[in-house]
Amino acid sequence: MALVQPYLFFNGRCEEAIEFYKRSLGAELQMMMRNKDAPPGEAPPLPPGSENKVMHATLAIGGGIGAVGGIAPGLAKV
What is the CA 62 to chain-centroid distance, rounded? Predict the structure, then answer.
């Protein structure tokens, strides 16, 4: 049986999405990395004020795992 693990992007609003999934679906945060925690040279230049935005997180929802990302505002349109 195939296992699907979605990766959803939330244009600078990833932390809000995480809280929504925790409240609404009982999701459990497994891992979270903020832009400022990225290894040097791994992230593109960030707009001022986006250092504390969520870059990547994984959530356990039901029996599956989902990932979310928070592209910094101004870097890409999703």
Answer: 18
3-state SS track over the chain: CCCCCCEEECCCCHHHHHHHHHHHHCCEEEEEEEHHHCCCCCCCCCCCCCCCCEEEEEEEECCEEEEEECCCCCCCCC
Bridge partners (DSSP) of residue 65 are 60
26, two tokens: 């009982």
> What Cα–Cα distance (Å) separates residue 62 from each residue in 26, 33, 58, 66?
8, 22, 13, 10
The two most distant CA atoms of the chain are separated, in Å, by: 44
Q: What is the pLDDT of residues 7-63, one digit of tens each?
A: 999 988 999 999 999 999 999 999 999 988 988 877 777 788 888 999 999 999 988
- Burial group, residue 56, by CB count within 10 angstroms (0-12, 13-18, 19+): middle
